[in-house]
Structure formats: structure tokens, C-alpha cells
Amino acid sequence: MINARNRVIGVGLLSGLLILGAGQQALAQEEMQFASNDQQLDIDVLRMYFSDENLVEVTTRAPQPLPRVAENVTIISAQQIEEMGYHSIDEVLSKLAGMVVVMGHRDMVAKGSYRTHGLIDASHVLILIDGVRINSLFGGEPYSYGVPLQIVKRIEVVKGPVSAVWGSALGGAINIITKDTGNTAKPEGQIKGSYGEARTQDYNADTAVKTGPFSYYLYAGRQDSQGLREDRWFYSKRFYGKVEAELGQKTQIGLVIGHSEPYYSQFYVAPDNNANGSLPHSWGTLSIDSSPAVGIDIRLSLNGARMDYTQNTTIMYYGDLNSYSLFNNDKSWGCDATVAINRLPNNSIVLGAEIHRGQMEYFLGDYYPNNPSLNNTREKRVLQELQGYFINDSISWGDLTVTPGIRFDQSSLIGDQTSPSLAVVYRLTASTLIRATVARGFANPPLYNYAFDGSETIKPEKIASMQGGVETSILDAVRFRATIFHHNVKDTWGGVTLNGMHMHRDGVETEIETNEYKGFSANANGTYIHEQNPETFSGGKNDEIVAANLVFAYNDHHLLRVRLQGSYLWLDTYEWEGYKEHDFSGMIWDATFGGTPFSGNMQGLEFFGAVHNIFSNTVYWGTEYKNPARWVEVGVSITY
């Protein structure tokens, strides 16, 4: 149970945020391609307060203006990501309200486990790259740390179930939207490199260009570190390519290929207590987008992915040296079809279907050099076939927008699932929105669960969720946002072949953001979660999670930018029970800076740097996963 001091910190931070008010995250800049005059007028009014020329795709699978979206959505732009100075998607997501990201460690490239609103299992959150699933079939984990930040145009994060649109997405969805292909014959892009302590290196280069009917975006990069603590080394090489071609004025064909190949030390305590692994991951999409008539957009796509996971572990177990290796191969492929209809005023219908097939091959080998009789191997192959059909309709009456949706899924492993949702957003005043959602959803069990006898009895976890929130602008200077939520999950996974009792997650998330004044700005967010757990989690004890983030920034948009960010996280007992040593007392402060001292032909040259964990504070849940102390890096980028 959270102690009294942490309760005071959490309640105090959230109370302060509620008093000050909180804004929504800065959003990407992308205009509607089709809207009636009335719709466009409404959006123009809202833009004065919310910068709402932005569109959200993840909530319906078709672009929707943010003022008409009721779901709990946060958008992160490429500019925000660059100013943060981090090296992985997980680090960026950990700074968002409602996104509790539990880090295995915090070295150069931190790998995290997502717990949106405190929901526990890794497979609860769906992660997508341009709408393509990249979760591991083996364990359901969202292995996003192989995705280079430089290819990101924006990230859309929806918190709470979105099964009515995406199927298995009990805890939400994260859609990573990549940069556009070029639109001029002159190449545009960026070359960027950084170097820090423990030979920590991050090199990236991308370019975008258009030649005739073809346009391209290409990226290549490499990351390397000897380990900022406990010899936790890391190495990764990455490639991403996108090609698009115009087939007439109304049809476009696109091809996307991505590959990342990370090798890493998961932890290193001693020669008889360490683990290392690799995770080569490739994905691709072939798509056709067409607009056969005004207000009708059709998208067809074929996609596939492959992930090869290897882990080698050596550990002393009851006085006997045990070495074991885990090999896993995930293969998935499928096709999607989506139709968006915007022919009627104040009405947007999206319907679609998808078919996916996934296969997991799993091998585990135990090796006891001192006791050969204990040596054992296990092999398993699991196949899953999925079909999904969905429809949603956004209907606006003046200041009110209602979006009902429903999806039907068929799975060869868990049978049929139906997921309805209803979202409502009301514009109370020109600068105030009220949002509410109710939804049901589910999560497929990871295919690893089916490697054990008795797995045929396991059921998907199911959720009934309610959320409500308000966002407003105060004197056009401070933006405020608050959301309360209640999640009721049944058939929780109590083991690899068992379903347990219900669990509840109740809480509040708040955000505050000031407008920039003479280059200065500030923002903060906080999350409080009360957990009611079944017997299989923490012995049935109720618990709490508190998280908060503070940012102070200065940017003159020419010579200098500086950012100071602090993060606090108190985790529930479930994360650290069984570990004698853990520490959540510290607040981690990071500082980033950048400068462009030149003008003319050299104005694209920027020097930047970061001081991570300035005060060498500690946040860890086990002795093998202690975070690094203060470390420094510097770099240079050239934008052309």
C-alpha cells in the first residue's frame, strides 16, 4: 500500500493541477481534406483555442478533427519528441498523463511495459506503425524500442478500450504515424548524431524527395552503448523506407518496409547472474488509397511482420548453475479494407474488415552442467487466425457530436467477441469541451499461454469502461484538461492457463499547459490510480499508483532552446513484491538544450545536448534493474 508521504505527494500534485487547469498536448499540423462549410466553420472557431487543425486517425481508422473526438487521446508531435531528447518510444510515452510505463531499466534505450491507467498485462495495449500491428505474438509485449524516433511524424495515444475499432485492445492503442514522402525534387531531410558517456552513440539520417510520379522517404540509423550501469550494453541498427506513386489524380499506391535489429544485455549482476538477447524485427505494408467520388475514401492494404526473439540467461539456482535459452519466432500477415464516407453534412461513416493470421514458434532449453538429469527442452507452435468487421458513425448536431461503434471478431483460439462503444463530445462554450465514453473491449491471451497443457480453457480478458472529462482554455493563456475513469476487468489472467477474478481501476489524470510567453512555457500532468485487485494480484490487496511530470522550457526559435523535465512515479506493490530492495523515492530530472548559432546557408546546423538524471536519483523495482546515475551526451544535427 502506498505510504502516507506518497499519498500526500500524489494528492497534492493532482490537486494543484486541478486548481491550475490543464491543457491538451501540442498537436500535429494537418488540415481536413473534406468537410462541409458548417463543419469547417465550427473547426475554425475551435482552432482559436485548441490548435485543432489536427486530425486523429486511431479512434475511428479515418481522420477526424480533434474537437469531434470524445476518446481520451493525446498526440505527440515530432517537434515535441526532438525537444525531449530521448532515444526510445517508451521514454516518450512514459511522460504522458495516464500512461504508466514500467521500465526494465533506464539505460540509453529504455524498454518499458505499458500499464495504461494501471491495467497490468503487456498485451492490453495495442501498438501500431501507420495502422499495422507490431505487438509480439509470443507475449503480447509492444516492442516499440526498435522503432527509430526520427521517422516519427506524430504519435496518437488513446487510453481506454478501443476494441470497437481495433479488436484486441483492452487498454488502448498507440499509433505511430511516420513522416511523409517528399513533395519536391530537391531532397529534404536531416543528419543527426550524438555521443555520450559509456560510448553511448545514436546516429540517424533521413531524406525525402519526389521524382515524377514517385515520392520517397528513406531512413537509416544505428545506436550503440557499452552500458551506463552494470554492463548493460546495447546495439541496434535500423532501416525504414517508404515509396508512394500516383496512379492518376485519385489513386495512390504505397510500399513501406521497416527493419530493426537490437542486441542487448537485459541485466548483468555477476558472471553467474546475467541475461542478454536479440530481437530482429521486420515489417512491411503494400497499400492502395483511392477516392472514387467526392467524400468517399477507400484503403486496401496487405501487411506482414516477423520478429525473432532470443534470450540467453545464466543464473545460480539453489546452488546449481543453470543456463537456459529461449528462442521465439513470430510471423504474421493479413489484409485490411476500410471505407470512409463523408457525403452527408455533419456525418462521417467508417466501415471495414480485416483478416490476419499469426504463428508463434517457441523453444526453451534448460541446461544444468552440474546436474544433467534436470536438462529439459520444450517446443511449441501455435497458430491463430483472426477476422474482424467494424463500423462507426460520427454524427454532429450543432455543438454535439455522437459516435457509436461496434466490431465483431472471430478467433480460432478464443471464439467470437463483440465490442460496442459510444462516445459523446459537447462544446459547452467556444473554449470548453466536455467528453464522455462508454465501451466494452477484450484482450487476446498471448500465444505463449497456449504452450502449456490446459490452455484450451483460457478466456480473453474483458473490460467495461467509462470515462469523462473536460478541457478548457483560461484567458487564452492556460489550457486545462482533466479525465476521470473507471475500468472493470473480468476473467483476469491468473496464470498461463487460468482466468481469475474481477479487478477495478479508478482514477483521474490531469494536464496543464501554458501558452508561450516571450519564449517561456511550462506544462505538467499527473495521474492517480486506485486499484482493486483479485487474489491473483498482490494477494487481493488494494493499491495505488501516482505519477507526475513537470516541464519548464525556453525557446527563442532561433538561437537557443532549453528544457527541464522532472518525473515522479510511485508503483504499486505488484511491481516490486518479492524484491527486498526497491526505491521509488526520487524524482528524475533531465535537462536538454539546443542552439543554432549560424544564419544564412548554415542555419540548418544545430548543436544539442542532454544531462540525464541531473541529481542521480534512484527509481527501480529490483536490484537487477537499477537506473543509471547522471550521464551526459552532446550532438549535432544538419537539416537540409
Task: Provide the CATH top-level class.
Answer: Mainly Beta
**What portion of residues belong to β-strands?**
over 45%
Rg result: 24 Å
Low-confidence stretches: 1-53
Structural class: mainly beta
Mean pLDDT: 84
Strand tally = 32
What's the CATH superfamily, by name? TonB-dependent receptor, beta-barrel domain
Main sheet: strands, sense, barrel: 23 strands, antiparallel
Any idea what the shape is? globular
Instruction: Give the N-terminus to C-terminus distance in angstroms.
Output: 53 Å
Structural domain tally: 1
CATH topology: Maltoporin, Chain A
Helix content: under 10%
Tally of individual helices:
6
CATH architecture: Beta Barrel
Descriptive report:
The chain has helices spanning 4-20, 37-50, 78-84, 89-93, 163-166, 573-576, and strands at 55-56, 64-65, 73-77, 99-103, 112-116, 125-129, 132-133, 152-159, 172-178, 188-196, 200-211, 214-225, 234-246, 251-270, 273-278, 281-293, 296-317, 320-341, 347-367, 376-397, 400-411, 415-429, 432-443, 461-474, 478-490, 503-514, 520-532, 543-555, 560-570, 588-595, 605-612, 631-639. With 640 residues, it is mainly beta. It is built from 6 helices and 32 strands. It has one domain: Maltoporin, Chain A, CATH 2.40.170.20. The protein has a 23-stranded antiparallel β-sheet that branches. It is globular. 8% of the residues lie in helices and 55% in strands. The longest helix is centred in the N-terminal third of the chain and has 17 residues, at 4-20. Strand 18 and strand 19 (347-367) form a beta hairpin.
